[in-house]
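Let's do one together. I've listed all components of the complex below, 354 residues spread over two lines.
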Amino acid sequence: MRKLGSMVVAGVLSVSLIATPIALYAQSATEVCTQAEMDAKRDVNKVLWMGAGFFLGVIGVGAAYVLEPDPPAMRLVGKSPEYVATYTDCYKSAGRNLQVKSAVTGCAINGLLVVGYYACVLGTLAAAASP
Amino acid sequence: MIALVLSFLSLFPDTLWVSGKFYRTLTEQGDTERVSGTLYLQPGQNFFLEVTMPVHQIVTLRAETLILYYPERQLAFKLRSSLQMLPLGSQVFALNEQDLLKQSGFVFLNRETRGDTTWSFWSHPQEHLTLKLGTVQNRLVRLTLENTEKQRVLFQVEVKEYREIQPGLWLPTSIQTLDATTATPIIEKVAFQDLRLTSEVPHWVQSFVLPPQTEVRIRGWSE
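Okay, and this is what the predicted structure of the assembly comes out as:
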């Protein structure tokens, strides 16, 4: 019964908006968009996407572009269709940009490390080969 | 998350719903936004919110898709949602909280009882977080998440005024949340009224489908 009770409570609690920074008074499209961008900035896991870029290279960058982040459902409760349309578009656009930027950074760091490594190896070989 | 909730499907009689009125206020920088409506919940199966104020909106989940439907506008949004579908507090409740916390990288520290409240303390060393869970008779009454580096509260949830809607099934009627992760803290209060177990819900809830003439806007990975 406890587990059942927990499930019901979970459903009831899902009305709650923990960690859901809804724009309270952002009414104009610009303001809604600004709020969505701020939320996306907070939600996107930059370390994760940097790791994806570092370890997966171009594939990681591609995934960052394709896998758009979606705003938490409960942020849109009680909002007008116009708000929902603007918010979701801006959130996803901003989120994707952040993901791609982080993945590219990870990819670039990996590239620099590889180039540095080969430069060191070549330098060592050249030094060893010189009389 | 959704899949895990659905895995409990068999625990609840198919015909029973929890329904009740909800009133939610969000306060930020002294300004308050109010949303109210009716909740219909069939644990592990169906979840509906009929928002009546400030707009008429029906919110429901279908697997990992969120549907926001505006009947008067004959307009619906379908969002392929991520794991953020449910907020943190619900996730803690929906699962065995210990398993969830361990999976999330939290380490159990200790447990102690003060008065009628049992407190359990958890730590996330990598993220410099501590979590304090207070329960009374296995019912959550307080959750506090703190950043130990900055020594400040990030989230705080207070769950109050439990009512027994059937023997052994207790539901809270007041939930207050503080979100201090944003530039300006947000306080949310949700109150429930007339929560009850019932088999009688409106027909549209029993068999929800979008009318054929509805304009559907897809917002998701498949877009």
